[in-house]
Write a structure and sequence with these properties.
The complex is a heterodimer of chains A (112) and B (112). Chain A is an all-beta fold and 112 residues long. In chain A, the strands form two sheets. In chain A, strands 2, 4, 5, 6, 9, 10 and 11 form a seven-stranded mixed sheet that branches. Chain A contains no helices and eleven strands. In chain A, a hairpin with a 3-residue loop joins β4 and β5. In chain B, β7 and β8 form a beta hairpin. The N and C termini of chain B lie far apart (41 Å). With 112 residues, chain B is mainly β. In chain B, strands 2, 4, 5, 9, 10 and 11 form a six-stranded mixed sheet that branches. Chain B has a five-stranded antiparallel sheet with strand order 1-3-8-7-6, with no helix packed on it. Chain B has no helices and eleven strands.
Chain lengths: 112, 112
Amino acid sequence: NAGVTQTPKFRVLKTGQSMTLLCAQDMNHEYMYWYRQDPGMGLRLIHYSVGEGTTAKGEVPDGYNVSRLKKQNFLLGLESAAPSQTSVYFCASRTGGQNIQYFGAGTRLSVL
Amino acid sequence: EDQVTQSPEALRLQEGESSSLNCSYTVSGLRGLFWYRQDPGKGPEFLFTLYSAGEEKEKERLKATLTKKESFLHITAPKPEDSATYLCAVQAAQGGSEKLVFGKGTKLTVNP
């Protein structure tokens, strides 16, 4: 049982490049989330999904897009990366009951 | 706007020296308060959920309590392996209840 798996673990991009972060969960969870964590800022919600085929904006959605085509996968896209998007990105998932979120190990992204 | 403030930002303890971490919150109706532990280079790991004032939960050397304005995470006789960043989060009862709002965390270091 792997839980929540994020790929890649590390990535370096140049300004203007695009990339997709993949989050996969094997717990049959309905809800999935993408956060970013910056020093001194805490975890901030980017986008989330309440079920397959749905997405919604969080606190800091600008510059990111998401898709939830399959229940087990939640993709985070950066169309044109900017240095301000340098951060650690965490994916989380949970069931439809209590809001106990299970987190992946994170993706460390640097945009030069 | 829902807000979570954690104090202190950092805390150093000697092994066996008990202390408490504070989480103050402002939320439009509390649906739940959550404590997570985060080790360096890893994603947050769920510890406790509290739902109503007066509620307490315990796990090994940790005990979480809740009032109408704040929560405390009491650490009794800590060990070096308790060193981590402890995150507090709240879920509002109204509007966007699928989301958690996180504090910036308290970094705990326990010296042997």
